[in-house]
TrEMBL record:
Composition skew (Basic and acidic residues), residue ranges: 15-33
Location(s) in or outside the cell: Cell membrane
Name of the protein this chain belongs to: AzlC family protein
Bias kind Low complexity: ranges: 35-57
One GO CC term on file: plasma membrane
Organism superkingdom: Archaea
Biological process (GO), any one: L-valine transmembrane transport
Phylogenetic placement of the source organism: Archaea, Methanobacteriati, Methanobacteriota, Stenosarchaea group, Halobacteria
Broad class of where this protein is predominantly found: membrane
Species for this entry: Natrialba taiwanensis DSM 12281
Compositionally biased tracts (Acidic residues): 1-14
InterPro entries xref list: Brnchd-chn_aa_trnsp_permease
Segments traversing the membrane: 86-106, 118-137, 143-164, 201-230, 236-254
Amino acid sequence: MEFDPETDEYADSEADGRRSERTSRRADGREDAAADVTPATAEPNTASTTATPTAENEATATEIAAGATETDTAVTFDRDGLRAGFLKTIPVALGVGGYGIAFGILADQAGLSVAEAALMSATVVAGASQIVAVELWADPLPIAAVLVTTFAINLRYSLMGAALQPWFKRLSATKVYGSLFVMADENWALTMRSLKSNTGYGAFLLGSGIAVWLAWVGATIVGTVAGGVVGDPTTYGFDFILTAVFLALTAELWEGQSSLLPWTVSLATALITAELVPGRWYILLGGLAAATVEVIRRGE
């Protein structure tokens, strides 16, 4: 027994020691139990936190969704696309053939032989610039005037090629430039329609271009041979064939009210330019005006 001066009582030190030890063990047991219970109680909170999207998760989801709206369709370059392009373009190619006859007649009147006219159509594959070239044909040949005029007319192809870039960037250079060689206004319009429909036909332009090329070259030969017999092509309405073809393509490309603004701006710009600027610059400037409107509108 020991005397405790604070309580003025005798205490059993051994009994107190045992009581202190039991108290300590009970305290340790409660801490262990609390430690075991804490993860179980915290787990629902953790799951809840994980399930709740954070700002970072929302941003990532937004980026993924935005990427999905772009041109994600796999672009293939195979016989299916080649065949689809060729068959789809046959009706349009017949119209191009009529226009080719008109060019052949003009080429014959300008003094070009059948071989020369056919070679021009096979290598240039650009009806408007070819007609302008034969209209400027003279002796001596005004090379500078022909080059500047045809360059202005064909600048529109840079815009057309840029429009194909989201799909063609996935193809090899050989496939791209081989397809672009036979690109004309008509088959470009049909190709854009096909690609926007998510067909994934990377060879559509080449197939459709082959159809146009065959009709154009063949009709040029026919027109040049028959040039001496037919005489003035406007007598038979050959000059309206290209206009009819483009009207049909316009109806095919019309996308509703969203097309109204850029088309109106393009038409107004082309008409004003044709009145104020000599040459064929109205073709390029009309296209640039429509492209500018689309960039501004989609950037808002």
